[in-house]
Design goal:
It is built from 14 helices and 17 strands. The chain is α+β, with helices and mostly antiparallel strands. The protein is globular and about 60 Å long.
Length: about 475
């Protein structure tokens, strides 16, 4: 085969009818046949897969796949407008963030499944025999796509993860040092983010092995790196879930990603629409395990990229036509989403004549921005940037009135304003991150941009430059 090999490349196989079935699997909404609620389904409303078709497809192409090494990446997300207002059926706008999680999956022969994630946890491993024993008793509906979590499997995985973490496993605390993480044997339902993420990972692996008709769990190594701050409201968990779902689906042959059938994006491959829908569905289930009640916005943005408009439980996806560059500034202050939501709820209850118009105004900002993002072309013109800048500044002031800003966020916005740039918090507020949307002119002047970055660092914040509205999940070439 000439040129770089992509994950999922089919080698030495004639295209069988089963392979062609993949193209024919319909990607459509079948609400008349399958009634679904927002809380128990994938956020991808335009796809229902039937596992009977997929199993037929898998049997047709599994034997010839060369899937020893897989590289994927997926973006984070930012909420441009609509924080908190979306809770009250107003519009929110989310975009993919050009900071990505990268996953390297390798098949091994050591009889273990191993996962390592830089800055999150050190190497953790399980025997494939232990996982296979769970696989043998796990059920997958062969006729319809799974939409509710398998509580029996979750309970057993919590026990497995708890027992594996009782041993002194080093857990990275995010600042370069290590802490020892212990779980008491009687308290297997550990609330830590690390243990919940591991449960989600193993749940996905076992369910997809069952879906693919595997009788055993293969020996695999997962190495993960992320540019996305963890716990800062930038979609780090959804980005991880999308990477895991993509890599495992491709390794097992449930999706086939190759240069003949998939779109090229600067030397990387974008899965087909039906493949993206399946990735999105399984990533959503993992995000539900991690967060308990995920909206589906984060995993959808990470899977598809671009822009998502979310209103009244419905999502509208578009590719951003405006090229926006931002500085994402992490305050380092831990967010408390529940507390911020409660602050807004209380103010709305006490002062409805004041707060309700504010929520309506945020809705108007979101819809106006969505129109700009749809109809721009390349870098924003001076008029477009002025409009975007004003909308961002207005929204930040409104969020301050709602009571969800923070002195650190205020300092970021003031610093940006002094340099002629627009900034606002993104996410729940009360800490976390702010975004500074850069004027195209400042991008041309490296010294001015670096001056801004230096000021943020002097304030002990962590700034990162990134673009918005870029591609979603990508498969990278492997040598």
């Amino acid at each position: 085969m000439e040129g770089p090999m992509y994950v999922g490349t089919v080698t030495g196989i004639n295209r069988s009818p089963a392979t062609e079935t993949a193209k024919a699997i319909s990607v459509r909404k079948r609400t008349s046949q399958h009634k679904r609620s927002r809380n128990d389904v994938s956020s991808s409303d335009d796809c229902i897969f039937f596992h009977s078709e997929l199993k037929f497809l898998n049997r047709g192409v599994m034997a010839g796949l060369n899937l020893r090494h897989i590289k994927v990446s997926a973006p984070g997300k930012i909420i441009l407008h609509g924080e908190h207002a979306v809770v009250y059926q107003k519009t929110a706008i989310a975009l993919s963030l050009g900071l990505r999680t990268r996953l390297d999956l390798r098949e091994t022969n050591d009889g273990r499944v191993t996962i390592f994630m830089e800055r999150f946890f050190k190497e953790i491993t399980w025997k494939t025999d232990d996982l296979t024993s769970l696989l043998e008793t796990t059920k997958v509906d062969a006729e319809t796509l799974e939409t509710t979590l398998d509580q029996e499997l979750l309970d057993r995985l919590q026990q497995l993860v708890g027992s594996s973490l009782i041993q002194d496993v080093g857990i990275g605390n995010g600042d370069g040092s290590d802490v020892q993480f212990r779980v008491e044997a009687a308290k297997v339902k550990d609330p830590s983010t690390q243990s919940i993420a591991l449960v989600g990972f193993l749940y996905l692996l076992i369910k997809l092995c069952k879906l693919a008709g595997r009788s055993t769990v293969p020996s695999l190594s997962f190495a993960i790196q992320s540019e996305i701050a963890i716990g800062a409201g930038l979609g780090s968990s959804a980005s991880l879930a999308v990477c895991l779902a993509s890599a495992i689906l491709a390794f097992l042959g449930v999706i086939v990603v190759d240069a003949k059938t998939c779109r090229d994006s600067v030397g990387k491959l974008v899965p087909q629409a039906d493949q993206l829908a399946l990735i999105n569905h399984w990533a959503f289930l993992v995000d539900k395990i991690i967060h308990g009640n995920a909206s589906g916005i984060d995993n959808s943005v990470s899977t598809y990229g671009g822009v998502i408009k979310f209103a009244n439980g419905q999502m509208t996806r578009v590719q951003s036509r405006l090229k926006l560059d931002v500085v994402v500034v992490d305050t380092g202050v831990e967010r408390n989403t529940k507390r911020m939501v409660e602050i807004v709820r209380r103010r709305k209850k006490l002062y409805p004549l004041i707060i309700n118009p504010i929520l309506d105004a945020i809705d108007g900002i979101s819809n106006t921005s969505f129109t700009l993002l749809q109809h721009g072309n390349g870098s924003p013109t001076a008029e477009e940037y002025e409009a975007l800048s004003e909308l961002i500044s207005i929204n930040q002031h409104l969020l301050c009135v709602l009571g969800v800003s923070h002195p650190g966020l205020d300092a970021i916005c003031a610093t940006a304003a002094r340099l002629g740039q627009a900034a606002k918090l993104t996410g729940a507020g009360g800490g976390g991150c702010a975004i500074v949307v850069l004027d195209p002119d400042i991008i041309k002047f490296e010294r001015l941009r670096e001056s801004m970055m230096t000021e943020f660092r002097q304030l002990e914040f962590k700034p990162h430059t990134a673009d918005l509205g870029g591609p979603g999940v990508l498969f990278h070439p492997v040598s």
